[in-house]
UniProtKB/TrEMBL annotation:
GO terms for biological process: microtubule-based movement. InterPro entries: Tctex-1-like, Tctex-1-like_sf. It comes from the Eukaryota. One of its GO terms (molecular function) is dynein intermediate chain binding. Pfam families: Tctex-1. This is Uncharacterized protein. Coiled coil: none annotated. Belongs to the dynein light chain Tctex-type family. It comes from Brachionus calyciflorus. CDD domains: DLC-like_TCTEX1D. Residues 12-27 have a biased composition (Polar residues). GO terms for cellular component: cytoplasm; cytoplasmic dynein complex. Residues 1-39 are annotated as: Disordered.
Length: 193
């Protein structure tokens, strides 16, 4: 017998079954009975998902993602408008009446459509008011309010209360009537300091 000590061999940690389809039967070579991965191809799918996510994050930038610095204007320290920049309701009321007349001239009252009509009319009135006031009074905030009702010889009262500066803020109001309906359009102009 020999005096050399024997080196213990590494035992396989799992016994392979030849008929099992789930177990990977490949060996790395070199004569070792080392245990291999049981699931073939599982890591490849994770790698491809991670790669596609990384590619999609990198390619998201577009011209819309670029943030431009906000333009800041210097303060003018003006607390009230010049005389020619004040809101003049008497100049705007005829245009408001023409807008109401053109939009409601051939319409008959329909309770289901009045909500939609009032939204459309208020948007048109805002457009017309901004067009008329754009160059002359740029610092006014404008609010339009439209009420449409059925005309059956009834009495109706409409009122509004506002907390504002009497010298700078103003209101324009127009009433339109035809055989089937009435409309009240009110335009508030509030000076923005």
């Amino acid at each position: 017998m020999s005096d050399k000590p024997t080196v213990p061999q590494r035992r396989p940690s799992i016994s392979f079954q030849e008929d099992s389809p789930q177990i990977n039967k490949q060996h790395t070579g070199g004569g070792s009975d080392r245990r291999q991965s049981m699931w073939q191809g599982a890591r490849k799918s994770i790698y491809s998902r991670r790669l596609s996510q990384a590619m999609s994050y990198g390619s998201r930038k577009s011209s819309q993602d670029i943030i431009y610095p906000k333009i800041r204007l210097q303060n003018t320290y003006r607390m009230e408008p010049n005389e020619d920049e004040t809101f003049k309701a008497h100049k705007l009321e005829p245009k408001l009446y023409e807008t109401l007349e053109s939009l409601l001239k051939n319409r008959v009252y329909d309770a289901n459509k009045c909500a939609l009509w009032s939204k459309e009319i208020s948007q048109e009135i805002l457009k017309e008011a901004k067009y008329q006031m754009n160059s002359s009074s740029p610092r006014y905030k404008i609010v339009a309010h439209v009420i449409i009702g059925e005309a059956k010889n009834q009495d109706i009262r409409f009122g509004s209360r506002c907390l504002w500066d009497n010298n700078l803020d103003n209101v324009a109001s127009v009433v339109y009537k035809n055989n089937g309906l009435y409309a009240v359009a009110t335009l508030f102009a509030i000076y923005f300091e």
